[in-house]
Design goal:
The protein is mainly α and about 260 residues long. Helix content is about 45%, strand content about 10%. The structure holds flavin mononucleotide.
Length: about 260
Amino acid sequence: MNGSPHKGNTWKLAEEVQGILKNIEPGSVIEEIHLVNLKLPFCSGCSLCFRTGGSNCPHNEKIQQVLNAMEEADGIIVASTSYNRRETTLLKNFFDHLCYLLHRPHFFTKKALVITTTGGVGAKSAAKSIASFLKGIGFNKCYLLPIAAYSWNDYKVNNKTKMKCEQVTKKFYQAISSEKLHSPSVLVMIPYNLFRGMSLYYVKGTEYETEDGSYWTDPIRKDTVYDKVVPVPIYKRPIGYFFYFLGKKLGKKVMVTYKK
Ligand SMILES: Cc1cc2nc3c(=O)[nH]c(=O)nc-3n(C[C@H](O)[C@H](O)[C@H](O)COP(=O)(O)O)c2cc1C
């Protein structure tokens, strides 16, 4: 997924990574999505996705194309230039359209490789910002490739960076081919279980029912501290129970309303 508005420095690294993947697994199929071609309008802030479901987003047709590709993929490579030490507006706008998935995470078996370049400073913070979002929507593992290009669109990938690309891409490939799922970090379990507890007040038939209420009371996830496909070691489970309990307490005190 190219989050840059052109095929520039960052895309050079994306191509490098694609070449390495093809070398490791000649049969691999890589679909390129250039977000700029999607012509996705800005999120209008209607909050229909949060309240009634992503399919009711006014821009759902465009979003769904990308979601389908993400669903089908074994792994996702996200490339973005660093603008002011963060992801580009293009990518942020796409992520804004998926913010409802922070409430109802989904991509539990997916792994990502995040490529960012910068003129000098901020590639790491941009990569971390992207990875933090992806983990929030359920991604199991994110590998980071933040690179300082020191160039305006005339970047030549040096040998040291080529080696780094090779290392990270191999790890990414192995993570996918092994199908091993990592247990969620505490930072991922906290919001997951807060939402699980707080959403009990928004189930169908309540004054401010939302999709969150239906999602979190679905028997497939209602009673577990993380999605059942992902292993959670015994010592981490009490953290989940604690934040679920806290979510229930908080949810009772604060009701999130909306105009009917
Ligand atoms: C709008 C804009 C914002 C940028 N912000 C930063 C920045 O905060 N720090 C930095 O070191 N470089 C910054 N740069 C430089 C680019 O990150 C850098 O040249 C990058 O490698 C360009 O990648 P691209 O060719 O894939 O777009 C910025 C460039 C643009 C166009």
